[in-house]
Amino acid sequence: MKIIIPSKVQPVPTESALFTGKVTRQPAVSDDMSKSFNLSIVNFPAGVRNKFHTHTTDQVLIVTAGAGIVADDHGQHRVIVGDIIHIPAGEKHWHGAGRDAAFSHITLTGVGSQTQQIEP
After folding, report:
1. How confident is the model at residue 31 (pLDDT cuts 50, 70, 90)?
2. 97: in domain
3. Mean pLDDT computed over 102-109
4. What are the Cα distances from residue 112, in Å, to 38, 90, 95, 106, 108?
């Protein structure tokens, strides 16, 4: 057993074409810890989101700070602390912060999950 205290997991700057700006990621459960899933906290500054993309495994998001937006082909949805979002494998979506506030969520995906960016 390992107890992970989010405030003690160092944020790692993450720059990727998938994001519209700079975000940080706090890796909490990595490949070397679990044969089944990865778990990390992603921190979005105000106005930053990721672009439309899909995953090869289901993804679960748990909102931990701020208020954000999750979007799919059906529209945008405001989410707040405590909300849990299930995104089935292959579903086109994006998520991130609104214009006025930072946003953080835990992300859970299956080990080996591949992300395909759809939006340029």
Report:
1. confident
2. yes
3. 97
4. 9, 14, 21, 18, 12
CATH number at residue 97: 2.60.120.10
Contacts of 8 (CB under 8 A, 6+ apart): none
Q: Tell me whether residue 5 is in a domain.
A: no
Q: Can you tell me the mean pLDDT for 28-52?
A: 94
Whether 29 is in a domain gets the answer yes
Does residue 113 carry a pLDDT above 90? yes
Give the residue numbers spanning the domain of 72.
Answer: 11-117
**Which phi and psi (to 5°) does residue 24 adopt?**
-120, 150
CB 100 within 8 A of CB 46: yes
Q: Tell me the whole-structure pTM to 2 decimals.
A: 0.94
Identify whether 73 is part of a domain: yes
Contact 84, 60 (CB under 8 A): yes
Beta pairing partners, 82: none
What φ, ψ does residue 34 adopt, rounded to 5°?
A: -140, 140
